[in-house]
Every structure is written in structure tokens, then in C-alpha cells.
């Protein structure tokens, strides 16, 4: 091993406070709530955004903005508040999402537009607004899905929206890489939330059919998606950009699970 590698690390010079502000959309419940909680536990000042009037701040030092995650004014308010509470904006998490299964023939175009607006357009608007408040450095994390890279019957709008998220992540990572703004995504598999419970209750696929696809033989917990999102945004991932990290118990790698 060379002397360079063995040399003691230089002491870190004192610098100005590192930005701690974080905005998480769709943070009233489910995965978004867990992500917001994860950032708060990691020492961030978190502003939660959600259309749900039940939205509550995480506690002292955090805040909440009730509104549509696709509305630039709502996002600007949330970003400004996070920057105020956290001495700058460190991270924006585009998590808000909806699902609306249906056969393609006869699928209402208004529903296609609504789904693409929430799942894809809002993430783009969020990135636009957040980028202007960030720098030098910063991180954007988007929430994709295994549906981005696999086909699911009667879920064309959802799958298309998530494939769009992954294109967005790669494009923005390249566009803003030299500015130190990292852009990544987590791609959850099947996670126990209201969205997933509604899918199962619709009768389109039984819980067992999902489990049959998951090598780890269980659904994910929202906190497991949160851990990945917090890591992607952290300095521990300082050279990671433009990636989509599957957090899916092995679903995306396919194969044949061990059970009979
Ligand atoms: P969820 O339990 O339904 O929570 C989503 C939250 O987003 C709800 O509070 C919802 O409010 C809110 N929301 C919806 N539209 C919004 C808008 N326009 N502006 C602001 N907030 C809005 O869903 P989840 O399962 O946690 O899903 C979170 C994200 O993970 C989504 O992007 C989803 O596509 C993705 N994902 C989930 C799974 C899974 O298995 N659960 C798997 C892969 C990816 P209302 O309830 O009032 O509408």
C-alpha cells in the first residue's frame, strides 16, 4: 500500500453551516411520510407537502404546506420555508404519486392526464423550483417504481409515468452534474401503503401473486424506502448521480424464488 493511502486524513476546516432544508411531497402518509421522518431523524429541517388536509408537520423545527405538488406556487412556498428552517435547501424529494388502473381501451384521457400530471409533471416542476433555491451542491431524489421497467396489465398510464421519471432523473443528473446537484431515484417494489392496499383490494392481483414475484418473500416497509432515499441524498452518496436504486426485495432481478 502506498504512503499516500496510509497518510492520516487532513483535518476538516471549519465551514459555514451545511444546508439542512428538505422538501418531501406526498408526505401525509405512506412512503412520503416515512421519507420525511427519515430525513428528520437524520437532522434535516423538513417541510412536508400534500393535498391531504390531514397533513401535519413532523414537529418543532419542521413545517407543512397543504397543496398540490404540481403547483409552482405551493412548491415555491415549501422550498422557501425549508431553506429558512434549514439554512438553505439541501434536498427535494418528488414522491407524490397516484395510481389508477384500467384497461387501455376505453381508459379516460382525463385520467391519463391527471396521473401524468401528479406522477411526472409535478416532479419536473419540483425540480425546476428546487434547483433555483439550491447551490452550490444539493440533491434531488425522485420516487420511481419497478413499473418503470416492467409491464403490468391495465397500468399503462402508471408505468409510462414512472418510466418518464427515470428519463427525467438521467437528464437532470447530466444537466446539473457540474453544479454539484445530484439527481437520483429509488424504485420501490411492493410496499405496504394505502396505495398498495387499494390495488390489492381491487382484485386485479392477489397478495400471493405479488409475493410469488419477490425473492425475499415479503412486502417492503415504507421505512426501507426512506432509508434508501436518505442515503442517496447524503454525503455518503456524494459521487452517485443519475441512478435508479431498486428497493424491491429482489423483484427487478427476476429469477425463480426458492419456494415450490
Ligand atoms: P399513498 O399511500 O397513496 O400516499 C401518497 C400521498 O401523496 C397521499 O397522501 C396523497 O394524498 C398524496 N398526493 C396525491 N396527489 C398529490 C398531489 N397532487 N400533491 C401532493 N400530494 C399528493 O402512496 P404510497 O404508496 O406512499 O406512494 C408514494 C410514492 O411511491 C408514489 O410515487 C408511488 O407511485 C410510489 N410507489 C409506491 C409503491 C407501493 O407499493 N406503495 C411501489 C412503487 C412506487 P391523498 O391520499 O389525499 O390523495
UniProtKB/TrEMBL annotation:
Q: Which GO terms describe its biological process?
A: fatty acid elongation
One of the record's GO molecular function terms = oxidoreductase activity, acting on the CH-OH group of donors, NAD or NADP as acceptor
A Pfam family that this protein carries is: adh_short_C2
Alphabetized InterPro entries for the sequence: NAD(P)-bd_dom_sf, Sc_DH/Rdtase_CS, SDR_fam
- What UniProt keywords apply to this chain's record, in alphabetical order? Oxidoreductase
What family classification does the UniProt entry report for this protein?
A: Belongs to the short-chain dehydrogenases/reductases (SDR) family.
Name of the featured protein = Enoyl-(Acyl carrier protein) reductase
Amino acid at each position: 500500500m502506498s504512503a499516500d493511502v496510509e497518510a492520516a486524513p487532513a483535518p476538516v476546516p471549519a465551514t459555514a453551516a451545511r444546508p439542512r432544508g428538505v422538501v418531501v411531497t406526498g408526505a401525509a402518509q405512506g412512503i412520503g411520510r416515512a421519507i420525511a421522518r427519515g430525513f428528520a431523524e437524520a437532522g434535516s429541517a423538513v417541510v412536508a407537502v400534500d393535498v391531504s388536509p390531514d397533513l401535519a408537520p413532523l414537529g418543532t423545527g419542521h413545517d407543512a404546506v397543504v397543496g398540490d405538488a404540481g403547483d409552482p406556487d405551493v412548491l415555491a412556498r415549501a422550498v422557501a420555508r425549508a431553506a429558512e428552517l434549514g439554512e438553505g435547501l439541501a434536498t427535494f424529494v418528488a414522491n407524490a404519486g397516484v395510481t389508477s388502473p384500467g384497461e387501455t381501451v376505453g381508459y379516460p384521457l382525463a385520467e391519463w392526464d391527471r396521473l401524468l400530471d401528479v406522477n411526472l409533471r409535478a416532479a419536473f416542476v419540483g425540480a425546476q423550483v428546487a434547483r433555483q433555491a439550491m447551490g452550490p451542491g444539493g440533491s434531488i431524489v425522485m420516487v420511481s417504481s419497478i413499473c418503470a421497467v416492467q409491464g403490468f396489465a391495465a397500468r399503462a398510464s402508471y408505468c409510462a409515468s414512472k418510466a418518464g421519471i427515470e428519463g427525467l432523473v438521467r437528464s437532470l443528473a447530466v444537466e446539473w452534474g457540474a453544479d454539484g446537484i445530484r439527481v437520483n431515484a429509488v424504485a420501490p417494489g411492493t410496499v405496504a401503503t394505502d396505495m398498495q392496499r387499494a390495488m390489492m383490494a381491487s382484485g386485479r392481483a392477489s397478495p400471493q401473486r405479488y409475493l410469488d414475484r419477490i425473492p425475499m418473500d415479503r412486502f417492503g416497509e415504507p421505512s426501507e424506502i426512506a432509508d434508501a432515499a436518505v442515503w442517496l441524498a447524503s454525503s455518503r452518496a456524494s459521487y452517485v448521480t443519475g441512478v435508479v436504486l431498486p428497493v424491491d426485495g429482489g423483484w427487478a432481478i427476476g429469477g425463480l424464488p426458492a419456494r415450490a
